[in-house]
Amino acid sequence: RGFDQNDDKNEQRFPEFAILRGDMYEESVRFFEDLFRNDGSVLDLLTADHTFLNERLAKYYGIDGVKGEAWQRIDGMQAKGRGGVLGLATVLAVNSGASRTSPILRGNWVYETLLGEKLPQPPADVPQLPASVPSGLTARQLIEKHSSLPECAKCHERIDPYGFALEQFNPIGRLRPASVDTRTQLADGVRIEGLIGLREHLAIKRMDDVIKQFCRKLLGYALGREVALSDLLLIDEMQRQLKTNDYRFSSLVEAIVLSPQFQKIRGQLAKNQD
C-alpha cells in the first residue's frame, strides 16, 4: 500500500497523521522528481539543503513563511534540522511503530536501503518488543535492553546506532520539542550525534557505499530484474561515470541505456511487440 494511504499510526496519539500523510508523500515525490528532472547531484540524496512544502506541511515542520496549497521549494533545511532523505517525514514515519519510534527499523533502513548491507534472519525465539514504550523507559532504553540479549547483540550493534541518531524525530517524523539523547557509537567505533552527525558520516566515510547501492537499485529498476553478478562491471562503470560528471543523475542514465544489458532488454521487448 502507498504511504499516502498508510493507516498504521495510532490515531489517538497522532490524529494529525491522517491529514498530513498525503502531503508527506507528495514532498518525497517532488524531492526525487526535482533531482531527476533537473539533473541534480546524486550526492543530494544525503546532503540536499532544500525540500518542497505547502503551508500545512511547513507548519508541521515548524517553518514559517509558506502560504497556501501551492508547493514551494524551501532552502536552508539543514539549519532547520532536516535535509536530504534522512529528514523526510515519509522515511522517518514508515520506519516507526504505531505508537513509538523504532530505532531498529530506522537503523535497518539506513543499513540495508542506503548502504546495501544485509543482516541474517533473527532467531525464531527472539521476544517481541511491546507496541508502546513501558512507563519509565524511553524508546532507546527499551531497544538497548532488548539488544543486550546475547542472541541479538551482534546484529543490533550494526543497525541500532543509526536509529538512535534519529531519535530527535517522533514516530511521524516531527522534531521533538524537548532535547533527546542522540549520541551513539557505530559498530566500527565512530561516535556520531543526531541527524547531522549521521549525515556527515554517510556523506564522508560511507559515500562510496551509498553511491554503489543507489547504482544497484537504479540498474535493477531499469532492467526490471534483480542485479546479477554479471552486472558488477556495469555498476563499476556507473560509479566511474558519476565521479567524472559531478555526480549528475544523467550520467547514470546514459551508462545504463548504452549498456549491453539494457540494449538486450530493449531488443527483447521490440521482438515481443512485433
Write the layout of secondary structure elements.
Elements: H1 17-37, H2 44-47, E1 50-53, H3 55-61, E2 72-75, H4 89-94, H5 103-114, H6 139-147, H7 150-164, E3 183-185, E4 191-193, H8 194-204, H9 207-223, H10 232-244, H11 249-257, H12 260-273
Largest beta-sheet details: 2 strands, antiparallel
Q: How many β strands by DSSP?
A: 4
| Averaged pLDDT | 92
Assign an overall shape: globular
- Element-level helix/strand string: HHEHEHHHHEEHHHHH
Count of alpha/pi helices: 12
Question: Beta fraction of the residues?
Answer: 5-15%
Helix/strand/pairing category: mainly alpha
> Strand sequence of the main sheet, in spatial order?
1-2
Low-confidence stretches: none
Separation, N- and C-terminal Cα atoms: 35 Å
Helix content: 40-55%
Radius of gyration over C-alpha positions, nearest whole angstrom: 20 Å
User: How many domains in all?
Assistant: 3
